[in-house]
Amino acid sequence: GQLPYGTPTHIGQTIYRSQPNYGGQQRYNARPRQLEYKCIEGNLQYDCVFYDVHIDMQTQDVYFGFEDITLNNQKIVTFKNSTMRKLPAALLASF
Prior knowledge:
single chain; 9 strands; two-stranded antiparallel sheet; APL1C; LRR_dom_sf; disordered N terminus; three-stranded mixed sheet
Protein backbone atom coordinates (compact mmCIF):
# COMPACT_ATOMS: atom_id res chain seq x y z
CA GLY A 1 0.00 0.00 0.00
CA GLN A 2 0.94 3.63 -0.21
CA LEU A 3 1.95 5.59 2.84
CA PRO A 4 0.17 8.85 3.59
CA TYR A 5 2.01 12.06 2.70
CA GLY A 6 4.77 12.80 5.22
CA THR A 7 4.74 9.37 6.89
CA PRO A 8 7.88 8.67 8.94
CA THR A 9 9.52 5.36 8.00
CA HIS A 10 11.17 2.90 10.36
CA ILE A 11 14.66 4.14 9.47
CA GLY A 12 13.99 7.76 10.35
CA GLN A 13 13.34 9.01 6.84
CA THR A 14 10.13 10.70 5.84
CA ILE A 15 8.48 9.75 2.57
CA TYR A 16 6.97 12.57 0.57
CA ARG A 17 5.11 11.63 -2.57
CA SER A 18 5.53 13.98 -5.49
CA GLN A 19 2.33 15.19 -7.04
CA PRO A 20 2.06 16.83 -10.42
CA ASN A 21 1.73 20.57 -10.05
CA TYR A 22 0.24 22.45 -12.96
CA GLY A 23 2.03 25.80 -13.00
CA GLY A 24 0.04 29.01 -13.23
CA GLN A 25 -3.20 27.76 -11.71
CA GLN A 26 -3.01 30.04 -8.69
CA ARG A 27 -1.81 33.20 -10.41
CA TYR A 28 -3.81 35.97 -11.95
CA ASN A 29 -1.43 36.27 -14.89
CA ALA A 30 -1.33 32.58 -15.65
CA ARG A 31 1.57 31.34 -17.70
CA PRO A 32 1.00 28.50 -20.15
CA ARG A 33 0.16 25.26 -18.40
CA GLN A 34 3.35 23.40 -17.51
CA LEU A 35 3.54 20.03 -15.80
CA GLU A 36 6.06 20.12 -12.95
CA TYR A 37 7.45 17.28 -10.88
CA LYS A 38 9.24 18.48 -7.77
CA CYS A 39 12.16 16.68 -6.20
CA ILE A 40 10.95 16.16 -2.64
CA GLU A 41 12.51 12.84 -1.64
CA GLY A 42 15.96 11.37 -1.65
CA ASN A 43 17.47 8.30 -0.02
CA LEU A 44 20.80 6.56 0.34
CA GLN A 45 20.72 5.25 -3.24
CA TYR A 46 19.19 8.17 -5.14
CA ASP A 47 19.55 11.94 -4.97
CA CYS A 48 15.92 12.26 -6.01
CA VAL A 49 12.91 9.94 -6.32
CA PHE A 50 10.02 11.03 -8.53
CA TYR A 51 6.60 9.40 -8.12
CA ASP A 52 3.64 9.12 -10.48
CA VAL A 53 5.32 10.63 -13.56
CA HIS A 54 3.39 9.80 -16.73
CA ILE A 55 4.65 11.11 -20.05
CA ASP A 56 3.27 10.08 -23.42
CA MET A 57 4.22 11.09 -26.94
CA GLN A 58 2.03 14.22 -26.79
CA THR A 59 3.28 15.50 -23.41
CA GLN A 60 5.07 18.84 -23.70
CA ASP A 61 6.57 21.42 -21.34
CA VAL A 62 7.50 19.15 -18.44
CA TYR A 63 9.78 20.45 -15.68
CA PHE A 64 11.64 18.23 -13.21
CA GLY A 65 13.40 19.29 -10.03
CA PHE A 66 13.29 21.87 -7.31
CA GLU A 67 11.49 25.18 -7.70
CA ASP A 68 14.88 26.87 -7.12
CA ILE A 69 16.85 25.64 -10.14
CA THR A 70 20.16 26.34 -8.36
CA LEU A 71 19.38 23.33 -6.13
CA ASN A 72 19.12 20.95 -9.08
CA ASN A 73 22.48 19.25 -8.71
CA GLN A 74 21.15 15.71 -8.49
CA LYS A 75 23.03 13.15 -10.55
CA ILE A 76 21.26 9.91 -9.62
CA VAL A 77 17.49 9.99 -9.96
CA THR A 78 14.80 7.32 -10.24
CA PHE A 79 11.10 7.10 -11.00
CA LYS A 80 8.50 5.01 -9.18
CA ASN A 81 4.97 4.25 -10.33
CA SER A 82 5.78 6.05 -13.58
CA THR A 83 5.64 5.55 -17.34
CA MET A 84 7.52 7.48 -20.01
CA ARG A 85 6.91 6.85 -23.69
CA LYS A 86 9.59 9.40 -24.58
CA LEU A 87 12.40 11.01 -22.62
CA PRO A 88 11.74 14.76 -22.52
CA ALA A 89 14.65 17.10 -23.20
CA ALA A 90 13.55 19.01 -20.09
CA LEU A 91 14.48 16.01 -17.95
CA LEU A 92 18.05 16.10 -19.19
CA ALA A 93 18.22 19.89 -18.93
CA SER A 94 16.94 19.87 -15.34
CA PHE A 95 19.99 18.14 -13.89
